[in-house]
């Protein structure tokens, strides 16, 4: 019986050792940390996943609008560099959570999601634009 238990553990460790290392990282961060990470990232990929109408009412500086509810989210996301950090936000956090999961599926390795979305960003007095 001890031989079977030992064999089981050895087999388990061998199988686990053969798996590809998990290298994707998803971070849900406060507006302050989100802003700081963006500032410290060269050519940051900032995604506003709200509708175009919401985007026009105000958005983060240098953000690009890729509507999570639109039909082109996956195609537009594939035009970004999945090896570089991507910063994702929506109005309150629900859509950005779903979009971040999809980006992980598409192979993005480092994803920062804005906790509380644009509402929290704005309520904490962080900078935004309408341009």
Automatic annotation (TrEMBL):
Gene3D superfamilies: Rhodanese-like domain (3.40.250.10). InterPro entries: GlpE_sulfurtransferase (IPR050229), Rhodanese-like_dom (IPR001763), Rhodanese-like_dom_sf (IPR036873). PROSITE patterns: PROKAR_LIPOPROTEIN, RHODANESE_3. Pfam families: Rhodanese. It comes from the Bacteria. Residues 40-130 form the Rhodanese domain. This is Rhodanese-like domain-containing protein.
